[in-house]
Amino acid sequence: MRTSNRARAGQYAALLAYLVFLAFPFLWLLSTAFKPPRELASLHPTWIPHDPTLANFRQAFDEQPLLRAGLNSLLAALAAALIAVVLATPMAYVMARHRTRLTKAATGWVVVSQAFPFVLLIIPLFLVLKNLRLIDSVPGLVLVYVVWSLPFALWMLAGYVRAVPAELEEAAAVDGAGRLRTLVSVTAPLLAPGIVATALFAFITAWNEFFFALVLLKTPEKQTLPVVLTHFLGAEGVADLGPLAAAAFLATLPSLVVFALIQRRITSGMLAGAVKS
After folding, report:
1. Which of 177, 201, 240, 258 could share a disulfide with 172, CB 3.0–4.6 Å?
2. What is the DSSP secondary structure assignment for residue 274, as one 8-state letter?
3. Which of 103, 82, 202, 81 is CA-nearest to residue 161?
4. 190 with 272: CB under 8 angstroms?
5. Is 64:232 a contact under the CB 8 Å cutoff?
6. Rounded CA gap, 215 and 209, in Å?
């Protein structure tokens, strides 16, 4: 019993240390965002600002178009997540339920494609978008985000499909349900957590993406938030630390809010499809 309690206490201590490790950058960013210039230049930094101020936030909005850039990022991320999930769900179902040599090869290619570096893809993508006249446009950026997130979304959803027992679909067919009715009433509710998790992954990936947005978007009015954050760096690479921290803190909020709103649906939907009404 004592050994079990010690092991459990050790697990909780390790979990707490891990949470502190994950939360440290965000907490330090939050602290920096509210510090006045005098405290930012201090040789003895503190966790809690002695004289907190909102001047960094006002300066950030005055210097850069954060609202417009945030709207561009939000539109691109939402569109990419929606399109990726709509395309990946039926494709993942086919890959998981029909195990042929072709689907196995496709699964292997999906995994291998994730190892390709961004630099290797940017020239072909640039040429394709140029022929489609989508360079320097948010729809073109959305297309790139969908292409980039689709392989992992396929692999992720295929795992969720394999976790759904095929016997449930067979039982529904025995009860007289057609193929479409089985997919909608039985399979889809069980896949809801996977679909939500995949959409969350695609959204966060697109929201935080920097390289493609930097290369493909040249018009200032169309740039996304990660690109605009680099404008707080001076010509010599010196950062305007206070406004940069304030803008970066605001840039992290949408991801946190989306996860907070969706995380309950991820767990509550796991057994929703298993209840027959």
Report:
1. 177
2. G
3. 103
4. yes
5. yes
6. 11
Return the structure tokens found at 241. 């630390």
C-alpha radius of gyration, the chain, whole number: 23
For residues 265 and 49, is the Cβ–Cβ distance under 8 A?
A: no
Residue positions counted in the chain: 277
Name the one residue in this structure whose structure tokens are 């909780």: 12
DSSP reduced 3-state for 143: helix
Tokens encoding 108: 């292997």
pLDDT tens across the length of the chain (277 residues): 556 777 777 788 888 888 788 788 888 888 888 988 888 877 777 888 888 889 899 999 998 999 999 999 999 999 999 999 999 888 888 888 777 777 677 667 776 766 777 777 788 888 888 888 888 899 999 999 998 888 888 888 888 888 888 787 778 777 777 777 777 777 778 888 888 888 888 898 899 999 899 988 989 899 999 999 988 876 666 777 889 889 999 998 888 887 777 766 555 444 443 444 3
**Side-chain half-sphere of 141: how many Cα atoms within 13 Å?**
28
